Amino acid sequence: HCGFIAIVGRPNVGKSTLLNRLVGQKLSITSRKPQTTRHRIMGVDTRDGYQAVYVDTPGLHIEEKRTINRLMNRAASSSLTDVELVLFLVDGTQWTPDDEMVLNKLAKTGLPVVLLVNKIDNVKMKYDLFPHIQELSEKMDFKAIVPVSAKHGGGVDVVEQIVRESL
Ligand code: GDP
Ligand code: MG
Fold first, then answer.
1. How far apart, in whole angstroms, are the C-alpha atoms of residue 133 and residue 139?
2. pTM of the entire structure?
3. Over the stretch 53-69, which tens digit does the pLDDT of each residue have?
4. Which of 151, 152, 156, 158 to mutate to test the pocket of ligand 1 (most atoms within 8 A of CB)?
5. Backbone phi, then psi, for 104, in 5-degree steps?
């Protein structure tokens, strides 16, 4: 029961904050070299019965400003079969064309994707959120849709349960 879990999303949706929640003090491996391997290992959560390796998968990124990144992205798409599950993180307060781009890339992979709607602690957002979710779930068959607060920890236990079940 060990495998790669990709955390995917445009910049600023809360990926790093979520990772800290998921691995916290249990963080045992980090890689400071982003594009030297097919996956950049972000953190490892080792528990009784399972080990989740959280990775950053370049092929699923929209941060393609540099040519080298674009080239690596092409290479990375061949490695997607290594991923057991994708955590697609969005900011519940703000849906952008970049999110759309990530969604379209994910749809092509055929991987199981869990939509994590982050920043639910921001009350103002809740009213904007639900029509979007409806729209998103029509575009893609998510394994689950989980509202979370990476910052305060809400819903993270649900995410961990889903991860455990997928390994
Ligand atoms: P990344 O670029 O996807 O890695 O995003 P970060 O983890 O760096 O977070 C971007 C910003 O969003 C930071 O200012 C975080 O404090 C904030 N943020 C992340 N998660 C939450 C959340 O659950 N609630 C709120 N209100 N802010 C959050
Ligand atoms: Mg980050």
1. 10
2. 0.84
3. 888 766 666 554 554 45
4. 151
5. -65, -40
ipTM above 0.95, yes or no: yes
Q: Which residues of 50-82 are buried (b: 16+ CB within 10 A; e: fewer)?
A: bebbbbbbbbbbbeeeeeeeeebbeebeebbee
Task: Tell me the helices (H) and strands (E) count for the chain, helix number first.
Answer: 5, 6
**Residue 56 · residue 80 · CB < 8 Å:** no
Question: Does the Cβ of 118 fall within 6 Å of ligand 1?
Answer: yes
CB 148 within 8 A of CB 120: yes
Selection from 58, 57, 56, 54 nearest residue 27 by Cα: 54
- Alpha-carbon distance of 10 to 63, in angstroms, equals 8
